[in-house]
Amino acid sequence: MMGEDPRIEDLQLRMQRDPGSIAFAQLAEEFRRSGRLREAVAVCKVGLAIHPNYMSARVTLGRALVELEELDEAQTELEKVLRSAPENLAAIRGLADIHHKRGALGDALTHYRTALNLARNDPELEDTVTDLSRQLAPGREKPQTDEHAFDPTAYGPADDVLVAELTLFVDPPGMARPTAHVDATGDPAHDRALRLIARLEHWLAAIHVSRSQRIA
């Protein structure tokens, strides 16, 4: 074929001379690496019909199917590999990629960690494990752009009514109410909001004291 990669051309000639050659696995992997995924899948399936236990070819098949987004078939092939070779790194990473693509981040992280235990100095794997661990960490801080992020300037005049009602409910008779003090920022709306927060904190503390006295 005009302009064909010499390595691929040589492997194709070998397959023409001996259709039952195990060179099919190398040819399929070359196709996969060059982005010719459908050809990689076709060569693998023909070769594996003759050599069903050739695990490296089955890994190539699984990885090509992952890249083609044919995830169910890819998972079937890679699981066959791991039943025979539980520590096959490429198959483990392939399964991790499948779970990642499906959004099953917990399962993906489990497989990526297993892969990292087998390839401890792989920076790509380290970055992936770190990123997924951060995403799945409980109680991680929400970004400040979150729609529920606290904004002290969001309070308005209507909140004074609520504060007055809270005062009647919370403050015990005769309890001295300290004047809330905050450092002035120069922004009237901001300062007012901060004073409101300070008063609310005082009343919450009063609730705690009242409850403690009732329990005692």
Describe it for me?
The protein folds into 2 domains: 131 residues, Alpha Horseshoe (Serine Threonine Protein Phosphatase 5, Tetratricopeptide repeat); 63 residues, no CATH class. It starts with 5 loop residues before the first helix and ends with a helix. Helix content is 68%, strand content 0%. About 16% of the residues have low confidence. It has 216 residues and is an all-alpha fold. The chain has 10 helices and no strands. Helix 2 runs antiparallel to helix 3, helix 7 packs antiparallel against helix 8 and helix 9 runs parallel beside helix 10.
What secondary-structure arrangement, pairings included, does this model have?
Layout: H1 6-17, H2 23-33, H3 37-50, H4 55-67, H5 71-84, H6 89-102, H7 105-118, H8 123-136, H9 158-170, H10 188-215
Helix pairs in contact: 1-2, 2-3, 2-4, 3-4, 4-5, 4-6, 5-6, 6-7, 7-8, 9-10
Keywords:
single chain; 216 residues; mainly alpha; 2 domains; 68% helix; elongated
The CATH class assignment of the largest domain is Mainly Alpha
How many structural domains does the protein architecture include? 2
Q: Which range does the strand content fall in?
A: under 5%
CATH architecture of the largest domain: Alpha Horseshoe
Derived from helix and strand composition plus strand pairing, the structural class reads mainly alpha
The tally of strands reads: 0
Distance between the termini: 92 Å
Helical coverage, percent range = 55-70%
Give the uncertain stretches in residue-range form.
141-158, 165-180
What is the count of helical runs? 10
* H and E order: HHHHHHHHHH
CATH-assigned homologous superfamily of the largest domain: Tetratricopeptide repeat domain
What's the mean pLDDT score? Answer: 80
Query: Judging from the principal axes of the Cα atoms, what is the shape?
Result: elongated
What name is given to the CATH topology of the largest domain?
Serine Threonine Protein Phosphatase 5, Tetratricopeptide repeat
| Main beta sheet strand tally, sense and closure | none
- The Cα radius of gyration reads 32 Å
